[in-house]
Give the backbone structure.
Amino acid sequence: MASPIPLLTEDSPPLPDLPPEIIAAVLSRLPVKSLLRLRCVCKSWRSLISNPKFAKTHLSLASANTDYSNHRLILSGSYPYTDFKSCSLYSILNEKSDCAVQLDCPLKRPNLRVTIWGCCDGLVCIGTGSVVCIWNPSTGKYKRLPDFEMAYICYSWFGFGYDECIDDYKVVGFFFNDRAGGFELEVKGLHWIHWPGRGASNDIIVSLDLVKETYGEVSEPKYRCGYFYDFSLGVLNGCLCLLCNYYDDCFELWVMKEYGIRDSWTKLVFVPYVSHPLNHPHDSAELCILENGVGLKDIVSKCSAPLCLLENGEVLLDVATHLVRYNPKDGTFSFPVIHNCSPFFTAYPYIESLVSPDFDAKSGVQWQHQY
């Protein structure tokens, strides 16, 4: 048995002073929760941990960790509309269960649904349709963006990303104007840019270069024969991915390994429809083996973009508001369990970080118009 660690007393010799670079290197590898507590140790540590450069270093190291130990899932419940919880993605993948913890949503509007529009570098873009907010659920900090001015909006939705050229984050707003019969687009990070409506298009993947703020079209993969009624776009390991939902029997997961090159589309996983998780005990991670790769009764025909792809080829999906883990090698499914959570939720992966939604506060938020 190891001897107990002696406690420090007034008569104990002083601890050796470590070089600042060593302290920074050690602290940058700690989880966010620990760093928030360590800010109280001394002024120099508080200054270091609050420095945007330290936040970038911490984010870089956390992102390089491929075991998802620094990642969590933010869970958006069906009701109340501002009910957000989070759980450890590492625990979901390795222990097949976790207990969700409550998050304090910065937007609390009675009877208004708060939607998660996107996650980037630990920041989460949320909104009610007329109000948009950038929120770091790990630190609790948030920034409400100025209201946008549109003459008439029938429907709106948003995207969220990072512009590395100006070291800034941008929110992309799509506004459908029923009276004009088309779409209008605004881009807002700490800056907004407005384009007049250009009309709508169907069945194509449209891109927006956040650096040049120009439109483009991304070639779709060469789908197999058969009809599908929807597909979901996402990002897996830094690559654009597409989950194609076929009418008959399956999902197909495609990844564009070289962005903009159609021939780089690679089909990673063929996922047969899985029997509904509600047909299985919700308090256990039961394994369901499908016969001949065909789903059983009560198949689920709605699936989000993949939450994560493991090194062994397994994929974690959000299927009909339940987590489903699929192993393509043996065609098996398992259902990770999240305790202390509504049985109906939508999951979004994010990385724990110190990135502040207001780190560029000196520049402020400005309006710009482009015609």
Summary: The first strand starts at residue 71 and ends at 77.
